[in-house]
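The pair is listed for reference:
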Amino acid sequence: MKYRKRLLVLVVLTKVIVGCDSPKSGSKLDESYKTTFDKILEAQDVNGSILIYDPQKKIYYSNDFHWANTGFLPASTFKIPNAIVAMETSTISNDSAIIKWDGKKRAFESWEKDLTFREAFQASCVPCFQEIARKIGVENMENYLNKLRYPTMDVREETIDNFWLRGNSKITQMEQIDFLQRFYTKKLPILNSTRDKMLKLFEIEKTPEYTLSGKTGWSYNEKDNNGWFVGFYQRGERIYYFALNVVPKDVNNMEQFATARVNAIREALHQMRLL
């Protein structure tokens, strides 16, 4: 009986994971921009995949759908669900809540001071969000990630403050876009006030013509650098979702890698005549 139950759970989990990797019902996969996207990544000295979803036309555009369905550590893109869970559990009250610096040396000087929650999110302060994850705790984190259907995170006592940075946690570009769309279209089981606060955290650029919102991520899992830029772009009433995942071509020349992620998405939107 126990074996049957375990087998049933495994089958259900497999279906959930496969379902997240598959395109949304009725949506199409389009490679018509493959050459264009490849050239964009070439110019940024990276290899990888650009994935853009147009929900109005129900079309995914990418240069590499296999890459887009491959799981990688979420790195700092996990600050999105981490921030949501922090607000839903009242671990953080609002975006102006202060996260105190402990006085210890950090990787970047910009992290070596007290930061508001909004500043910590936008500065991608790893120690700040590690502290937040510890305060949330394993049980709350697991429960909320299950509720949010944020997949395949290895949450344990020994990994609670780093499971998104190293180890076995995985998320695909397809899953990133699925999560972002459910967030934006109010399909996540969260308070409207949490969603409104998150929209402010996300915002990168706002003009009279468009709004660009998103989060970058960068992980180094023992041997490989891996970079993300995920988010959404709104122009008038139209919304587009994007998820980029790339690796550097030359690990001895990393100066361009930090900016390459955002630059590549901007250029892709421009080439598609959206930006």
Observations:
- The two ends are 57 Å apart (CA to CA).
